[in-house]
Amino acid sequence: MAVGTSARCYTRTMSSQDAFRKMALAEDGAEERAHFGNPDFRIGGKIFAGLQANGQTATLKLTPEVQAGLVDPTDEHATFYPAAGAWGEKGWTHVRLTKARDGMLRELLAEAASSVRTPTKKGPRAAEKGTPEGASKATRDESPRALVTAKRRSRGQ
Q1: Does 72 map to a domain?
Q2: What residue numbers bound the domain in which 26 lies?
Q3: Which helix (H) or strand (E) segment is 31 a member of?
Q4: Are 116 and 64 in contact (CB under 8 A)?
Q5: Which of 106, 82, 104 has its CA nearest to residue 94?
Q6: pLDDT tens for each residue of 100-146
Q7: Structurally, how many domains does the chain consist of?
Q8: Residues facing 92 on adjacent strands
Q9: In whole angstroms, what is the distance from residue 49 CA to residue 67 CA?
Q10: Which CATH number does the domain housing residue 113 bear?
Q11: What's the pTM value of the predicted model, to 2 decimals?
């Protein structure tokens, strides 16, 4: 996403779980399986997204930071809201498909897929991870995190 682009630039509303499914399966290496009887999407056996049985909700594996920029705790009918309990605290986020925009979901699905492609470090050195040496500012600004930061700024947070 270009620098300065906000969520308002996404105009097309999601129409169905089928559209979400197509976007999730478009991620390199993605496959559809099932988890507790609901469709999920995996890369290398790791879940990055799923669909709920209600036909109107999907779930994404995001970082808590990205989730915080999307969730509006004052709106009980918000597009994005955290999963219950520890899952939500880890960044798992529900999406009301009828309210979400295609472009935003593509970006967030790419972020979720990336999170399962990248090996995670555990322990004290995990905090040392950051922007790889030599990564340009433009690369960082095109991420969903940049979108979240822009959204926070527009809210005055």
Answers
A1: yes
A2: 7-118+137-152
A3: strand 30-35
A4: no
A5: 82
A6: 988 999 999 999 999 999 776 665 544 444 544 444 444 444 566 66
A7: 1
A8: 61
A9: 14
A10: 3.90.1150.30
A11: 0.69
